[in-house]
Amino acid sequence: GENVEQHPSTLSVQEGDSAVIKCTYSDSASNYFPWYKQELGKRPQLIIDIRSNVGEKKDQRIAVTLNKTAKHFSLHITETQPEDSAVYFCAAHNTDKLIFGTGTRLQVFP
Amino acid sequence: DARVTQTPRDKVTEMGQEVTMRCQPILGHNTVFWYRQTMMQGLELLAYFRNRAPLDDSGMPKDRFSAEMPDATLATLKIQPSEPRDSAVYFCASGSAGRGHMSYNEQFFGPGTRLTVL
User: Fold this and answer.
1) Residue of A2, A45, A96 to mutate when probing chain B, most B C-beta within 10 A
2) Which residues of B touch A32 (CB under 8 A)?
3) Cβ contact A43–B91 (<8 Å)
4) CA B50 vs CA A32, A33, A71, B70, B90: distances in Å
């Protein structure tokens, strides 16, 4: 079955710096890769996603890149702000379900 | 805007008691997922349904957990008997999927049920 690894588990950055979170997946049949943000005590919410026929997607300060050959995808947050502080989960869609990574706790210090 | 709802939001119970958690998916969504999350760890898939039929419940301890969809507007997750190690936040999520392995869409999460078993 599919396995998704996510790194790093924690990430601390200064406000205004960039943050990068990386995920790898094992099954080349996976075809959809969403990223979820979960604030403390809240539900996970989709922030950006990418499908397997696209290499990069951008939405304001966040972007996701996908390398199908290497089976890895990354989340990039530029000009980080304190409100970006949260846990971020990557996921890979495989046979009807999402397989989630273990999460990255991002802290943005003012 | 449409949201997944879950009840109760918080549940404290004693070991051995039965616990039932309920989820109302977004109207029109045909796929429902149950996840468990402990101490802000990863999201562990317990079971999921499509068009009310269970597709996979391999993530659930079968001896004490059961999941059902009595109708298209209600999904339930039951634990009987509950144990302290079941303490976690249980999330329900819904989405829509068509036929075939290439159909996929965003999963929308409910607010979760925080379960504490003493």
Assistant:
1) A96
2) 104
3) yes
4) 19, 20, 28, 13, 19
The CA distance from A7 to the nearest CA of chain B, in Å, is 13
Does the beta-carbon distance from A102 to B104 stay under 8 Å?
no
pLDDT, tens digit only, all 118 positions of chain B = 689 999 999 999 999 999 999 999 999 898 999 999 987 568 899 999 999 999 888 889 889 999 999 999 999 999 999 999 999 999 999 988 765 444 566 889 999 999 999 9
- Strands B10-13 and B113-117: what pairing? parallel
SS3 A79: coil
